[in-house]
Amino acid sequence: MSLGIAGAVAPDGAPGFLSRERIVAKAGFNRWLVPPAALAIHLCIGMAYGLSVFWLPLSRALSVGQAGPAACPEMGVATVLFTTTCDWRVSDLVTVFSIGIVVLGLSAALFGGWLERAGPRKAGLVAALCWSGGFLIGALGVYVHQLWIVWLGMGLIGGIGLGLGYISPVSTLIKWFPDRRGMATGMAIMGFGGGAMIGSPLADSLIKTFRTADTAGVWQTLAVMGLGYLVFMTAGALGYRVPPADWRPDGFAPKNAGKAMIASGHVHLRDAHRTPQFWLLWLVLCLNVSAGIGVLALASPMLQEIFGGALIGQPGTALGALDGAQKAQVAAIAAGFVGLLSLFNILGRFFWASMSDKLGRKVTYATFFALGCALYAAAPWAAAIGSQALFVAIFCVILSMYGGGFATIPAYLADVFGTQFVGAIHGRLLTAWSTAGIVGPFVVTKIREMQAAAGVQGADLYGRTMYILAGFLAFGFLCNLAVRPLARHWFMDPASVPGAGVPPTAASVGGGFGIGRGGFSAGVLVAWAIVGLPILWGIGITLSKALILFR
Fold this sequence. Notes:
This protein has two domains: 26-250 and 516-543, Up-down Bundle (Growth Hormone, Chain: A); 260-487, MFS general substrate transporter like domains (Growth Hormone, Chain: A, Up-down Bundle), CATH 1.20.1250.20. The radius of gyration is 24 Å and the shape is globular. The longest helix is centred in the middle third of the chain and has 36 residues, at 324-359. The termini are far apart. The chain has 19 helices and no strands. It is 65% helix and 0% strand. The chain has 551 residues and is mainly α.
C-alpha cells in the first residue's frame, strides 16, 4: 500500500497511512492519549529557546584549547558565512534563533491551511523531519565550519519544523476537549516552554562528554539530539488521532447559550483575516509577547546591574566595582533568576490557560494586561527600595502571564472563530510572535543603550524601560476590550461545514472515548510517564539552579 505522502488515496482505494482519514479514532479511544502526543513534539521544538547553550562553545570551535579565539577583524557577512579559518562571533550565531522565530511565524501562516486538510499526523511528521533534520544539517555545518549551512539547517529548515510542530496539535486538542479548550492547549504549549528546560542541561552534558582537546563537542551533540528528536517527535506524530465528526464527550452540553463571546458557528480560513477581531487579537498577542520577551532578553544583566553587590551581601557596591570572582558570583545568581523566570513561564502556560476555561478568554487577557501594567510600573519602585525578593516575585508573575498568553490565544480564537479552521487561523496569528520577537528585544536594548550613554546606572537604568513596557500592556488592554462577537454573516453556512448533517452515533457521543468512561488506563499512564519524567527532570535541574537566589 502506498503511503500517500501528498494525502492521496492508496492504489487499492484505501486512505494512505498519513491521511487524515486513517487517524479518525475508533470507539474506545481515550482522548487523554492525545495531549502526551502533542507534548512529545512541543518538548522537542521548545529547545529553540535553549539554543544559546551552543553559542559560546561554537565561538571557540576552531580554537579549542588555545589561549584566545581564532578571530578575524572586520568580518563582513560573506566572510562570516564562508570562512573556515575564523571563529564565529556570538552575534552571528544568535542570528540562527532570529531566523528560526521569523520562519516559525511565516511557516505557520503559510502551511496552516494545508495542515487542516492533511491532518496532524502528516504535519507532525514533516515537523519532525524539518526540526531534527535542521539539527543534523547544523551538525554538518559545524563539522565543516560553514556558518551558512548552520543558518540553513537550524534557522530556515528548523524554523519550518518549529511552525508546523507548534500548530499541529492545536485544532485537534480543541476538538477533543470542547469542554476544556484552555486546559488542553495549555498542556501542549506548556511543552514548548519546557523544551529548553530539558534540552539545555542535556546539551550541556553532551557537549562536556564529547569535548576533547581538538573539538568543542558541538557537532556530535547536535547529531545525537537531532536523532533523538526525530524518534521522539515521530512517536508523537504517530500518536495523533482526530475525533469523528460531531463527536462530543459523555454528558457534554455546549456552553454557548448566554455567552456571546463563544461562537456557535465556524468562520472560514479565507475570511478570518478580513475581520477586525483577527487584527485586534493579533495586536493583543503581539503586545503581550513584546513586553515579556523584552524582559527575557535582558533578565540576567538587568538583575546584575540593578542590584550589583547587594546580591552577594555587599549593598551599595556597583557591579563595575566588583572583582572578577565577585562578578562570577553575581552572574551565577542572575542565571538562577533566569531559570526561575523560565519555570514560571512554563507553569503559567498551564495555569492561566486552565483558568481561562472558568474566567473566559477576554477576562483572562484583561487580567494579563491590567495586572501586568501595574507590575511593570511597580518594578522600578521595588528596585529603588532594594527589595530583591519583591523584584523577583514581580517578574515571576509577569513571565507566568507571558507564557499564559501563548497558551490562551488558541482557545480565544476558537471562541471567536469556531473550531473548524482554528489551527490555520492560529498559524496566521503567530506572525504576531515573529513581529514581537524583533520589536520587544529591540525596544528594550535601545532604551537601555540610550540610558547608559546618558550616564544612568543601577536601578534607574531600566526604569524608563519598565514604564514603556507598561504602556505596551495598557494599549493591549484597550485592544482586548475592543474585541466583540463576530457578526452572523462571517460564519459559514452550517450545511457547508465538513461533517455537517452526520447524525450522532454511539461513537460520536462519548462511546468510551473520554475520561468520563475510559479512565486513566495503563496505556494512558505510560504515555504520560514518557513525557512527564523528562519534564520533572528539567524542573528539578531548574529549581536546583534557582536555589542560589535564596542562599
